[in-house]
Amino acid sequence: DVVLTQTPPTLSATIGQSVSISCRSSQSLLHSNGNTYLNWLLQRPGQPPQLLIYLVSRLESGVPNRFSGSGSGTDFTLKISGVEAEDLGVYYCVQSTHAPWTFGGGTKLELK
Amino acid sequence: EVQLVESGEGLVQPGSSMKLSCVASGFTFSNYGMNWIRQAPKKGLEWIALIYYDSSSKYYADSVKGRFTISRDNSKNTLYLEMNSLRSEDTAMYYCARGYFDYWGQGVMVTVSS
Question: Do the strands A4-7 and A89-95 form a parallel or antiparallel pair, or are they unpaired?
């Protein structure tokens, strides 16, 4: 099974600060169809997760453009350009290139 | 508006069975693969099962393989998760999610305890 390793596990930021989260895969997430099925989710306290980014870098409808995703193969990054209070919670990467799908361990974004 | 509504929440004893449902609305259910994901208290997300749009393929996490069965009824826009031989470590919030995780239900809590 694909293992996704997220770093750091916890991130402390001030409002307005830019931060990045890394997601490293144990094998390439490039599908034979040419797509890379790596998504980023945010789970706010007490809420189900919500999709932020799909196919590595595509912004889900309604998600602010301060969120961006990049990467390829086995290394991926989520960047938040100017953290806002509503961004606090746990971020997860998830892959759906290789069954069974797998989630990263999560990165908790806290206020400093 | 896309909605996924889970039901079947409850407290059960170890070794018993339980069935969860997820009713979908606001999209053509029969066009999408569907997933079950769980989250143990204070833990991360764990994907546990996937079913293709036409039920032609099903996949399971090793932790539930042989005990849990995912199924769907496209005529009822409903996804199911049948859980047998439940263990204390199956205690978690269970979510259904569409396709590539673009829509999620609110989740139902399953507690396995004597």
Answer: unpaired
